[in-house]
Amino acid sequence: MSNENDPKQLKRELDWLSAAIMGLASVVGAGIFVSIGVVAEISGSTAIAALVVAGILGACNSVNLAQLAVSHPVSGGIYEYGYKYLTPWLGFTGGWIYLLSKTAVAATAALGFSGYLLNNLGLADAGLLIPVAEIAVVIITLVVFGGMRSSQVSTIIVVSITIASLLCLIIAGLLFCFSHGWGKLTFSGINSYQGATSFLQSVALMFVSYNGAARISMVSEEIVDPKKSIPRAIIFTVVTTMVLYIGVSLVSLGSIGAEAFAVATRTNAAPLQAVANSFGIPLVSNLLALGAVTSMLSILLTTVLGVSRLLLAMGRRGDMPKFFAKLNTAGTTPEFAVIFVGIAIAVLVLIGDVRVTWSFGTFGALYRSFITSLSALQIGDQERLYPKWISWFSLCSSVVLAFCIEWYYWTIGLGLVIVGLIWRFIFRQLYTSENIQLITKD
């Protein structure tokens, strides 16, 4: 484990393309395999327009993250930005919400991986859901424990398979739709207050799907030449994500229609499988199933990476136990933070039915976007890489979209924020008292 000569900073091992793959791995998962169907149920074929608008807003938020990550390239992402540019309370709550929501998402991804795998093997009713999910958590935790280099190789493999499966779906879908016509792809327009409300709600729900840049900022301390690499990685992630999302949504709604797509989402949470099956090409369906499995693994892997780096930053500042800030002797892994995240995910998996609603994820994403935009506005003109209006636009849009999600998710989210603030107040008091006692003894 660690010793007294531990390095204080993580080693920089990621180039811009490796960082971009990390971002893609955290995006190409539930966002594309499930959430497009959720949005299609709300706004029909207008979901495609919602995807584009959400992509533009996500790009603005990503530009803010790029600006902040270049100006302050350390582990911790939004937690560190809030601390440096705003107030400790806002920095802490941003990190706290990220910690809770992403840990639960990772548990959901582990169960999703298990479910997809067992369904494809014909073992869905064998009572293996939780054991297989736990095995996945252990393996991924060990991979991350091995350092950024082993995590990088694993991420490249799983994200390559996932993207290949989606490209196969898009190509086969375009051929199918052109040969059968695009009659099921209808646009009703936004011609009423209810229609506008549904559209904005869809934009808010899809906004979460463009949050890969947040994962890149979490590991910015490990990126080589951050001033050049981070903006490239973030822009590449956002553009590639938007192209994949639009392509998948076009062939999905064009092949089976918005209503059938929404039903497939509601009944078995696997709408793209229904789309692939409609083509009548077994190879496409099988490859997509494999891509769904690897996408869940990629979410699990990048979440363990990102959340462990957040715990590292919190341990450094004294908002979490300081042993989370301990690195291995090679300076590549916050060992105790990785172990803790793995255990936390494994505990949540034991519930067997972890349902983190997409709307709660939206609350977390919009809350983080608000703090990110506010932080980016504090950067001086001499350090600024991008126009200030982008930060203002991102700030205002996050506030507007926040009012488009259901009130009870606000209640849950704000309740968790209060719990976090209570934890911070009590822990900081204990932390300060402990330091005073150590100084007195010395």
UniProtKB/TrEMBL annotation:
Annotated TM spans: 16-40, 46-68, 89-114, 126-145, 157-181, 193-213, 233-256, 287-312, 333-352, 414-431
Location in or out of the cell: Membrane
Primary location: membrane
One biological process term in Gene Ontology: transmembrane transport
Record-annotated Amino acid permease/ SLC12A domain positions: 21-358
One of the record's GO cellular component terms: membrane
Membrane association type: Multi-pass membrane protein
Keyword Transmembrane helix set for record: yes
Pfam families: AA_permease
Keywords recorded for this protein, A-Z: Membrane, Transmembrane, Transmembrane helix
Protein name listed in UniProt: Amino acid permease
